[in-house]
Amino acid sequence: MIELKTRLLGRGTIASHIHGAPRIVRFLSVGGVASLLQLLFLYLIVQLTGMSKLLANVPAFEISTQFNFTLSYFITWYDRTPKKPTVRYVIERLLGFNGMAAATFIINWSVYAVMLFFVHYLIAGALGIIAATTTNFVVSSRLIFRLREGVSRGPARSTLGRWPF
Fold it and tell me: Which of 78, 95, 85, 64 has its CA nearest to residue 26?
């Protein structure tokens, strides 16, 4: 049993394995979970309330955005956060993330609205999510969770050699 635990966890903890994965893998994993959550809520809102498919995408997107922020903070961009963040720091990141989400929602919703004419509404929702993903990553990497000397857990490199990962 101890040998199995050692093989699964190696030297570190599960968290060290998660944080050791390439950032793009963490980003896509977190985004994938948030996207599935958005599609689940889109389905539930349409089925349970009878709300129009176009309008139902708004609350589904907002719910998944808050979930996405939480996972992004603790998984995707963990090394760019302080060890002891202040409430102000977290609120500033949350507001920035939601501002960015508002911009990417315009992309998401535009693609969704157009694609509703051609494909099933859940496929249209998935296409909208894909369209907004690149913007989300670049804005998160360069603005919201940018490296900050003396603040980030990880080293603040001056080179763009591995950017944006």
Answer: 78
